């Protein structure tokens, strides 16, 4: 994109955007939930579809002039259904938390009991944390990962579900690196008469590529953001069995949201189209290989990985034996141009603002075309930065090495 009008009309805004483009191009993005969209996805977002109001659904809108918007929403739905083998898809949710709010509203009454994974064990704020709407409106009981293995112990989940008899069980996480046993969750949910809700925001791209088990045919309802491993625009979708279609649609609109963002719906359709291509499967497979290399190389250097490894795109590194906190690691790595985020570890003795770990992911590196040899180099850079924290001249040297690596892998969608 040339941004001709923006550059001329509003250099103040343009200069900020340009600086962010340079940051993204010159730095390594290892935040597990971030990615780079394709130029086609970027272009779809920057279209006149943003001008339209279209409350309602295709063929049933509350505003005139929606014939063409209906086509884009219908196409996005069709592609998402194919990608995830879904009976029904709502493509309007604005992002992950609003999507989850709509799911709860569709299936629960305030005060109903729900089982969700605790935040410091890898769950998400919207899975019942007390400071979040989910924890305020619903009676969440939190399950945990196993103390010894760092993995979800399905026997413990079953025991808790039988004791608590929740109306809903939430599975699918933000900082959990292992495969999820969807069929076992289904069995438990059936035994206690609960709805099963999967939040696959993190792993949707890997599931779409057929590399992780697809929970859509197993669960009652599934939400995902579209901008993580799925590599689409910032937004979300909800998938459910046909028998729940009406209650989900009503819950999204008019329950939670007003007009959908039609330019984003168009970009979602483009991203789903990309994810349906064989090249996406290759991309997703490389994400996992890169992540497993990342885990193994860090382990060789003495770093502890929660659960001992990864089946997906992310790892959580427990830094306790390295003598620094997650915040110190995040800040040190930021100084050399590597973006990561501090993360709690299970049963973290430290507070969430300064927890004991960092979360690292490979979706964005892989979108740049980086493979195993680059990941090995990056692990060396991370380790050197951590070992030399506070040493300005060493950190400067590492930063220039990060930059030279980035130069060899230009970003999609950036036209500097
Ligand atoms: N903020 C996202 C993440 O980083 O996992 C989840 O919402």
From TrEMBL:
Its cofactor is pyridoxal 5'-phosphate. GO terms for molecular function: glycine hydroxymethyltransferase activity; methyltransferase activity; pyridoxal phosphate binding. Pathway: One-carbon metabolism; tetrahydrofolate interconversion; Amino-acid biosynthesis; glycine biosynthesis; glycine from L-serine: step 1/1. The record marks 227 as: Plays an important role in substrate specificity. One of its GO terms (biological process) is glycine biosynthetic process from serine. One of its GO terms (cellular component) is cytosol. It is found in: Cytoplasm. Residues 6-382 form the Serine hydroxymethyltransferase-like domain. Signal peptide: none annotated. Its EC number is 2.1.2.1. Homodimer. This is Serine hydroxymethyltransferase. The lineage of its organism: Bacteria, Candidatus Kueneniibacteriota. The gene is glyA.
């Amino acid at each position: 994109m040339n941004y001709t009008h923006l550059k001329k009309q509003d250099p103040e805004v343009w200069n900020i955007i340009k600086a962010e483009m340079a940051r993204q191009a010159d730095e390594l993005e290892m935040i597990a939930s971030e990615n780079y969209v394709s130029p086609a996805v970027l272009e779809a977002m920057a279209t006149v579809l943003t001008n339209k109001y279209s409350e309602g659904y295709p063929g049933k809108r509350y505003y005139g002039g929606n014939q063409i918007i209906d086509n884009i929403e219908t196409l996005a739905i069709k592609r998402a259904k194919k990608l995830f083998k879904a009976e029904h898809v709502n493509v309007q949710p604005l992002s992950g938390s609003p999507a989850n709010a709509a799911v709860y509203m569709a299936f629960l009454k305030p005060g109903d009991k729900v089982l969700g994974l605790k935040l410091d064990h890898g769950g998400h704020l919207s899975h019942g944390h007390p400071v979040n709407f989910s924890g305020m409106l619903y009676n969440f009981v939190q399950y945990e990962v196993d103390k010894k293995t760092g993995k979800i112990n399905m026997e413990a989940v079953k025991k808790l579900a039988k004791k608590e008899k929740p109306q809903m069980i939430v599975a699918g996480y933000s900082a959990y690196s292992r495969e999820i046993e969807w069929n076992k969750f289904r069995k438990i949910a059936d035994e206690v008469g609960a709805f099963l809700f999967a939040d696959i925001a993190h792993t949707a791209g890997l599931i779409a590529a057929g590399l992780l088990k697809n929970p859509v045919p197993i669960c009652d309802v599934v939400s995902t953001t579209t901008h993580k491993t799925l590599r689409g625009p910032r937004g979300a979708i909800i998938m459910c069995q046909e028998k729940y279609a009406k209650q989900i649609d009503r819950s999204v609109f008019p329950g939670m949201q007003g007009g959908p963002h039609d330019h984003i719906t168009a970009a979602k359709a483009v991203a789903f189209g990309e994810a349906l291509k064989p090249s996406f499967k290759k991309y997703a497979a490389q994400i996992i290989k890169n992540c497993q290399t990342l885990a193994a190389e860090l382990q060789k250097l003495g770093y502890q990985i929660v659960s001992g490894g990864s089946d997906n795109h992310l790892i959580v590194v427990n830094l306790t034996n390295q003598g620094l906190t997650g915040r110190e690691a995040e800040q040190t790595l930021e100084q050399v141009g590597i973006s990561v985020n501090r993360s709690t570890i299970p049963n973290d003795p430290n507070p969430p603002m300064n927890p004991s770990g960092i979360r690292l992911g490979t979706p964005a590196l892989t979108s740049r075309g980086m493979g195993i040899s680059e990941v090995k180099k990056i692990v060396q850079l991370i380790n050197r930065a951590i070992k030399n924290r506070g040493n300005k001249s060493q950190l400067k040297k590492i930063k220039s090495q990060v930059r030279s690596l980035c130069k060899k892998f230009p970003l999609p969608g950036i036209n500097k």
